[in-house]
Amino acid sequence: MLYIPSRACRHALPVDGQLDVSFREDAARNRKDNGPANIAVLRRRALDVARRDTSKGSLSIKLKRAGWDDAFLLNLLNQLDSE
Questions:
Q1: 30 three-class SS
Q2: CA–CA separation, 7 vs 76, rounded Å?
Q3: I need a labelling partner for 33 at 20 to 30 A (CA). Which of 47, 71, 72, 81 fits?
Q4: From CA 38, how far away is CA 8, in angstroms rounded?
Q5: Are 10 and 20 in contact (CB under 8 A)?
């Protein structure tokens, strides 16, 4: 079996790599039925919302901040309405 470092995989597959970095997708425990596909859709939408924000900071930090700060979360969601 060929060993591929995770850093090389992330550069080859930017969307999947970002999902893995932001949401630790490899450690997810949802493996039954449609669960993995449903969660993947929600995670991609969350990344889309965070990418629209123009404030400084990485996507991971924006997602954490949205989880901690309700005002920031509402700001992110309100940006969807304005566009």
A1: coil
A2: 29
A3: 47
A4: 27
A5: yes
pTM of the model: 0.57
Does residue 10 have a pLDDT over 50? no
Q: Where are the domains of the chain?
A: 56-83
CA-nearest of 17, 24, 7 to 63 is: 24
CA-to-CA dists, residue 38 to 15, 33, 72, angstroms: 16, 10, 25
**Mean pLDDT, rounded, for 42-61:** 89
Q: Which two tokens stand for residue 7?
A: 């850093």
Question: What is the DSSP secondary structure assignment for residue 34, as one 8-state letter?
Answer: T
d(CA 31, CA 26): 11
